[in-house]
């Protein structure tokens, strides 16, 4: 099947799922498309069990999709850039200390807690998986998906301080989680090949190269985009400049072996600071914002549809499903602890608003990034197991947390509406 045929099929399937959701399910777009895609996948699996030729062909077609490449070399940079554009960069700078603590410390705690908990859980089931691979699962499941939550926070009109903190933590949490996964994957590969070969200094240097290199690259390219946008007054040119900026961040980051997600976030914040400071700096601000909002929505829906369809390539077993169910409370408790500890360390002097903690914990949805990372785990028994665990956590997160976090955000917005200024 040609690239055109494959693209046409996937887009048409996504459009059909979105149409059914709009007419029948009436759920938030991302959640509805995911539910519809999962139902289609389950139907495909049932038909495969009956040896229906068309179903077997469809499954082989889905198997040929490089989901991780699609995420990391396709849509992720655009989604993070669009998310960063929507964040008030000056408000984020005022909360920089809190955001850095949550993005680094909270992510590290989550990786350690999930990895250690999974190692103990697998030991109870007499499964021998090295601790470094369990930590690898902790790294792939720790990045949160900011897209759906940010839209709900804006709709609920929670105070800007909460919205900025949740948005900043989610955006940088993604980049840090991906870098941590790369570091642990390198350690796992070195350990499996010829014993531990990476020193603490080597790990720190690798992390610095990926994380700091991505931020520096994104800042440099973002500054060029910032200067270019200041010099023009044409909507089409402004859109082309920002599209080129995102693609350049992704391509150059891959060649330099630095973090493309962090580069996209840094570039988006710099371009966003231009529109924050000078609302008239872009010729058609409303059209510019609408373009990136539409791009964000379309890519997000397409990504969640593909995420649901990829279920057909995962090999489920009774034991793996049970471990997946048990992984859900493990990830939730780890998220709660990893958020609570920074709150305690930073202290009450930060002036935390009510509902901040609850929104950060329950709003930490897992999504396509986690699944894409799971597909990059080296082939072997742990990869098949991690895919099942990841899908169990992601499906619960998207459907259960996704359907209820909006109500929590609405309660927060209503309770704080008359008490706390933006």
What descriptors fit this protein?
422 residues, mainly alpha, Na+/H+ antiporter like fold, 17 helices, globular
Number of strands: 0
| C-alpha end-to-end distance | 53 Å
Low-confidence stretches: none
CATH topology: Na+/H+ antiporter like fold
**Count of spatially separate domains:** 1
What is the CATH C-level name? Mainly Alpha
- Percentage of residues in strands: under 5%
> What's the gyration radius in Å?
21 Å
By secondary-structure content and strand pairing, the structural class works out as mainly alpha
| Number of helical elements | 17
Shape call? globular
Name given to the CATH architecture:
Up-down Bundle
Secondary structure: helix percent: over 70%
Main sheet attributes: strand count, strand direction, barrel closure:
none
Mean pLDDT, rounded to whole units? Answer: 85
What's the order of the H and E elements? HHHHHHHHHHHHHHHHH
How does this model look, in words?
The protein has helices at residues 3-25, 29-49, 53-63, 67-85, 89-94, 96-124, 131-141, 146-156, 160-194, 200-230, 235-256, 260-277, 285-309, 318-346, 356-362, 368-375, 381-416. The protein has one domain: Na+/H+ antiporter like fold (Up-down Bundle). The longest helix is centred in the C-terminal third of the chain and has 36 residues, at 381-416. The chain has 422 residues and is mainly α.
Write the layout of secondary structure elements.
Layout: H1 3-25, H2 29-49, H3 53-63, H4 67-85, H5 89-94, H6 96-124, H7 131-141, H8 146-156, H9 160-194, H10 200-230, H11 235-256, H12 260-277, H13 285-309, H14 318-346, H15 356-362, H16 368-375, H17 381-416
Helix pairs in contact: 1-2, 1-13, 2-3, 2-13, 2-17, 4-11, 4-12, 4-13, 4-16, 6-7, 6-9, 6-14, 7-9, 7-17, 8-9, 8-17, 9-10, 9-12, 10-11, 10-12, 11-12, 14-15, 14-17, 15-17, 16-17
């Amino acid at each position: 099947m040609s690239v055109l045929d494959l693209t046409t099929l996937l887009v048409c399937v996504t459009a059909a799922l979105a149409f059914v959701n709009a007419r029948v399910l009436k759920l938030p777009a991302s959640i509805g498309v995911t539910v519809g895609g999962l139902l289609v996948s389950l139907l495909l699996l049932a038909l495969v069990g009956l040896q229906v030729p068309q179903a077997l062909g469809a499954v082989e077609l889905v198997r040929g999709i490089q989901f991780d490449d699609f995420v990391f070399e396709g849509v992720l940079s655009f989604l993070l850039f669009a998310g960063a554009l929507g964040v008030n960069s000056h408000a984020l700078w005022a909360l920089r200390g809190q955001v850095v603590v949550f993005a680094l410390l909270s992510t590290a705690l989550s990786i350690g807690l999930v990895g250690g908990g999974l190692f103990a859980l697998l030991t109870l089931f007499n499964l021998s998986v090295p601790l470094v691979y369990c930590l690898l699962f902790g790294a792939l499941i720790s990045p949160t998906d900011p897209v759906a939550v940010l839209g709900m926070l804006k709709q609920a009109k929670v105070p800007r301080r909460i919205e900025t903190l949740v948005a900043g933590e989610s955006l940088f949490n993604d980049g840090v989680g991906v870098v941590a996964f790369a570091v642990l994957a390198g350690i796992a590969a070195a350990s499996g090949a010829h014993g531990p070969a990476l020193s603490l200094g080597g790990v720190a240097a690798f992390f610095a190269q990926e994380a700091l290199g991505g931020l520096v690259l994104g800042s440099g390219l973002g500054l060029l985009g910032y200067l270019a946008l200041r010099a023009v007054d044409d909507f089409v040119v402004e859109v082309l400049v920002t599209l080129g900026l995102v693609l350049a961040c992704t391509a150059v980051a891959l060649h330099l072996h630095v973090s493309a997600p962090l580069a996209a976030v840094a570039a988006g914040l710099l371009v966003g600071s231009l529109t924050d400071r000078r609302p008239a700096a872009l010729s058609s601000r409303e059209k510019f914002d609408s373009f990136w909002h539409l791009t964000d929505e379309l890519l997000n829906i397409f990504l969640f549809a593909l995420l649901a369809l990829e279920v057909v390539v995962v090999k489920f077993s009774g034991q793996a499903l049970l471990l997946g169910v048990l992984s859900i409370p493990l990830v939730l408790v780890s998220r709660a602890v990893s958020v609570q500890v920074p709150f305690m360390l930073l202290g009450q002097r930060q002036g935390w608003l009510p509902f901040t903690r609850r929104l950060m914990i329950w709003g930490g949805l897992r999504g396509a990034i986690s699944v894409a990372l799971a597909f990059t785990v080296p082939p072997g028994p742990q990869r098949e197991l991690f895919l099942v665990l990841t899908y169990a956590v992601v499906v619960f997160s998207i459907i259960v947390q996704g359907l209820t976090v909006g109500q929590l955000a609405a309660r927060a917005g209503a309770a704080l509406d008359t008490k706390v200024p933006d």
